[in-house]
Amino acid sequence: QGNTDLPLPPGPTPLPILGNLLAIRRDAPWKTYKEWGATYGDLIYTRTLRQGAIVINSEKVARALLEHRSYNYSDRPRFATIELFGIAFRTVFLPYGDTWRLHRRLYHQAFSADAAVQYRPMQLRKGRQLLLDLLGDPEGNDLEAHLQNHSASIIMSAVYDYDTQPRDDPLVAIVKGAMKMVIVASTPDKAAILDAYPILTRLPPWFPGASFRRHALNCRSYISDMVEKPFEHVKKNMAAGTAGPSMVSESLRKFEAEDDYGLYEQAIKNSSATAFSAASETTYSTLLVFILQMVLNPHVQERANVEIESIVGTDRLPDFGDRPSLPYVEAILRETLRFYPVSPLGIPHASVNSDTYEGYHIPKGTVIIANHWAMSRDESKYKNPCDFSPERFITTTGGLNDDTATFGFGWGRRICPGRFVADASLWSAIVSMLAVFKFTKAKDSQGRDLDFEPKWTAGAASRPVKFPCRITPRQAGMDSKKLAQLIDSSM
Ligand code: HEM
């Protein structure tokens, strides 16, 4: 229990009304929080307008509070934008309670470590489709789109048994369109203003300056399609007897005899719609980080390729059976997750009751932000943290150390339930790409390397901004026919 006589954790002095709003970098708040850490430590109190928040800058404190006291830190803050834009149904925003527990149960059935194994053949197939897409795009003009398709097609298959079309898939377009609207509409500064002045959310849509209300109405209709349309696809296939296994069909069957079936059906709809949006952006952003780092670190690719060729040869592609024999590839995956957690501040938690930690008072209902980016740059754990170095996970005897670098998947009872699926999607794509391609810098007209400074997008999910590169097959004469043969001989 908290003790109100104790001080709040330390932090920068807030200005009247605005609090620390102006002191926080809008493009990368995680960097500001890390810088503050040098003065105030790993637990910082900050205020934006009326909203107080505690930032955790280290794995140690995150573990102590969000894991060991998970019962008290598994709630979510209620932001005014969430209701306004019609996204309060998403698991990520549900308060700590029965509906959220039911969602977690549904994910556990479909995506636990054991259940996730069933998707591996599909994930390998999708990884190989990605190879064909990359072969046809040697300058990586549509790199982001290929990676997006790969991630979207895996999650649509696992959740809805839906086979996406390689381009312009109608269901993917609905879901992507809805998520884009939500991201534009619910930027942190909008959220902070609407939370501080909730009366604004009740302005009529026609009111001057209330364009966000019109936007919100539009957004709600997109969101409704995002929830209903893929779900209808499964129901239709179940009625026709053609539905393959998926999170939705298996959950519907499991609960069909329950008295309160309607409640389960709603939870299945809402959790499955959350899964798509939570899975696709994070997974493809991580693959983009991987490719960027391969372009910038050719020696890492070469070492990985030597490892793959010594274990797999060149007549087939790697599969999950090879995974334990490929420690360096594993280290690359870990280093990709460590180097740039694509959700740098995770999703905020909230405290259920007030609490005391190391002599500081944490009020009930405080927003708690885990700064994954600061954890990735912890010099006491990661020497030269700004270097991309898979070697940091390799022991002197060539095996892997115990650090799986999974802090980017979050904490305690709210930890990402899709992490095992994500891990397999990432590994199968990374190992396939390393086996077949070399990623290098693009060349200018004189044949010189085109150097560039990597940039990162702002927002809750951050990823590399488009960068120039070349994607070259390692085997001479590799064309789509030969690659298709290699893929066939690997099935
Ligand atoms: C590289 C890929 C991924 C990353 C980096 C990632 C990261 C995260 C993070 C940081 C959280 C918040 C955890 C917390 O509150 O402490 C989260 C939550 C969540 N993730 Fe993931 N995720 C990934 C892939 C996936 C996949 C593939 C799925 C679904 C199959 C998924 C479904 C979810 C859901 C439903 C939540 C909300 C959990 C809750 O509020 O209880 N994620 N993820």
How would you describe this protein?
This protein is an alpha+beta fold and 491 residues long. Helices cover 48% and strands 7% of the residues. It has 16 helices and eight strands. It has helices spanning 29-40, 59-67, 80-84, 98-111, 120-135, 143-160, 170-185, 188-196, 211-240, 247-255, 261-296, 298-312, 327-339, 372-376, 419-436, 480-490, and strands at residues 43-48, 51-56, 349-350, 355-357, 360-362, 367-370, 437-440, 470-473. The strands form three sheets. The protein has a four-stranded mixed β-sheet. Strands 4-5 form a two-stranded antiparallel ribbon. The protein has a two-stranded antiparallel sheet with strand order 7-8. A hairpin with a 2-residue loop joins strand 1 (43-48) and strand 2 (51-56). Helix 6 (143-160) packs antiparallel against helix 11. The chain is globular and about 70 Å long. The relative contact order is 0.16. The mean pLDDT is 92. The structure holds protoporphyrin IX containing FE (HEM). Protoporphyrin IX containing FE binds at residues 91-92, 104, 107, 111, 155, 274-275, 278-279, 282-283, 286, 342-343, 346-347, 349, 408-411, 414-418, 421-422. The site of protoporphyrin IX containing FE has 29 residues, from helix 4, helix 11 and helix 15.
